[in-house]
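queue> pop job 88
queue> type: inverse folding (structure -> sequence)
queue> payload:
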């Protein structure tokens, strides 16, 4: 009896020791050996960069540079934003050349601006590269395993399941919601003007508008509840944005720190409310109260689960959608689909408010195309000048400053061997402001450059199979909203506007966009 107990204890101790040694080895490999190996491989190929510090890499240096470059507003509305938004890129690309490696904590990141390499990476290697562990950890509590952060086969199957939600027929349907919500916002603005107000912080209105629209797209009749949930999700996004500061230390995500506790509590609250909507919609069909899950995005996803149940198998190579994943997709699409579009609209209003000649040109086009009708999906394809203006806005202020990809296996990219575990960063905002690609007026607002097709150096929606799934919808939505605004109002930039773009996941105006609105008289 005694001997058996001792044997069991001994076996237990050996197993525990085995696991401790394994975890220690994995930690050493992950935090030290692997990064060292990647650094050596890249140095052998002549790619260098700033020296990283243990565990924190170049994060403190980047944080310091950004704090300095964004400490003050820009002197006047000028669009030379790269030294302000990516000061580390501006300095390191001068010191180390067009491609260099820097370290986000223990994650090595190769910065690449060569268009041939970018094209190959985004188009050819979409299955063997993707979002890194560090990035996934940063958004784990916020949007989880939805399309934006999924990788490999899981990403591929999700993309195929979600594509039917963005057919031209569905987009037209969603536009009815865009038109309705825009009309309501315009009415709100008009009421305030009638009450005597003339200055508006327009980006706040546009954020609320796009949040309402994406909530309608996702939840249809349940959109008001969806909107409330998404307010909490925005708080969660703000907390998650600080993740890189909190994830450098090994195991830090397990510490019961104030940050970790706050994030978990908020996530619990958001998930519970979302699950109530999802389950409610599903129950209606299960108990026979309704024979359809609905035409909205949630309906498309629940239909997919219903189809799997009926067929008894998945059409997607064994990949199964479940309610948890639906929740992650709903959060992902809210995150990816409302702030980005609101920012496009806000920057475009700012650009038109500071370029009255272009504002007049767009207004004349809207009058030509729509007459006195409210802009709608049927007008969208006829807005040529507006399209050029939107593209120029996306060039100067792309919501996504960077497109990241981590290599999941070794592969050849141009003349470089990319080792497994190396992250590749495409600095979109720097490419969009590159004089060699765009000409001497690169930092000026000149929509005429989009009068003809531009090449692979215009990347506001990414490229290749992993490009933005919502691109067509975002552009339709933006055109309807901007055309509606410009049809009804003249906008002039207010003296209170402070030009201070900053990056908080996306490129945003630090103090909003203050404009003076005057109703257009016929
Ligand atoms: C002006 C508005 C928008 C901009 C500038 C934008 C930009 C982007 C970019 C650059 C990517 C690629 C990210 C990468 O390759 O890592 C992306 C992906 C994505 N976008 Fe958008 N987006 C916009 C609007 C939308 C809208 C309206 C939706 C949804 C309704 C949406 C949903 C997504 C999703 C789900 C992905 C991930 C696609 C995948 O990985 O397969 N986006 N977006």
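queue> result:
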């Amino acid at each position: 009896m005694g001997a058996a107990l001792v044997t069991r204890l001994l076996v237990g101790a050996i197993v525990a020791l085995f696991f401790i040694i394994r975890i220690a080895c994995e930690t050493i490999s992950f935090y030290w050996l692997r990064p060292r190996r990647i650094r050596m491989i890249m140095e052998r190929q002549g790619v260098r960069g700033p020296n990283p510090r243990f565990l924190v890499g170049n994060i403190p240096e980047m944080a310091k540079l950004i704090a300095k470059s964004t400490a003050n507003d820009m002197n006047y509305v000028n669009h030379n934003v790269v030294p302000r938004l990516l000061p580390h890129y501006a300095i390191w690309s001068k010191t180390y050349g067009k491609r260099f490696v820097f370290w986000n904590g223990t994650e090595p990141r190769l910065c690449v601006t060569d268009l041939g390499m970018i094209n190959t990476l985004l188009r050819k290697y979409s299955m063997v590269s993707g979002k890194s562990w560090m990035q996934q950890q940063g958004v784990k509590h916020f949007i989880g395993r939805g399309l934006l952060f999924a990788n490999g086969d899981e990403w591929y199957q999700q993309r195929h399941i979600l594509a039917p939600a963005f057919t031209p027929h569905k987009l037209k349907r969603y536009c009815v919601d865009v038109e309705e919500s825009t009309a309501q916002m315009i009415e709100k603005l008009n009421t305030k003007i009638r009450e005597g107000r003339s200055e508006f912080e327009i980006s706040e209105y546009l954020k609320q508008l796009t949040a309402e629209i994406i909530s309608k797209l996702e939840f249809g009749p349940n959109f008001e509840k969806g909107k409330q949930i998404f307010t909490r999700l925005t708080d969660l996004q703000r907390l998650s944005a600080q993740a890189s500061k909190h994830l450098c230390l090994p195991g830090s995500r397990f510490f019961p720190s104030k940050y970790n506790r706050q994030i978990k509590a908020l996530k619990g609250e958001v998930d519970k409310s979302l699950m109530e909507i999802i389950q409610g919609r599903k129950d209606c069909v299960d108990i026979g109260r309704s024979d359809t899950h609905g035409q909205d995005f949630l309906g498309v996803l629940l239909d997919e689960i219903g189809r799997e149940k009926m067929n008894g198998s998945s059409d997607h190579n064994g990949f199964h959608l479940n309610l948890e994943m639906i929740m992650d997709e709903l959060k992902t699409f809210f995150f990816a689909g409302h702030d980005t579009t609101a920012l496009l609209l806000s920057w475009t209003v700012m650009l038109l408010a500071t370029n009255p000649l272009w504002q007049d040109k767009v207004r004349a086009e809207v009058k030509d195309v729509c007459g006195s009708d409210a802009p709608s999906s049927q007008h969208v394809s006829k807005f040529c000048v507006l399209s050029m203006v939107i593209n120029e806005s996306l060039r100067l202020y792309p919501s996504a400053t960077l497109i990241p990809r981590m290599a999941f296996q070794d592969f050849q990219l141009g003349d470089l061997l990319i080792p497994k575990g190396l992250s590749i960063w495409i600095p979109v905002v720097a490419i969009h402001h590159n004089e060699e690609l765009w000409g001497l007026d690169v930092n000026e607002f000149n929509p005429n450059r989009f009068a003809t097709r531009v090449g692979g150096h215009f990347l506001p929606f990414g490229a290749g199979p992993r490009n933005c799934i919502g691109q067509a919808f975002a552009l339709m939505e933006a055109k309807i909203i901007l055309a509606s605004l410009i049809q009804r109002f003249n906008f002039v930039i207010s003296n209170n506007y402070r030009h201070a773009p900053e990056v908080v996941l996306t490129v945003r105006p630090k103090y909003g966009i203050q404009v003076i609105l005057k109703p257009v008289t016929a």
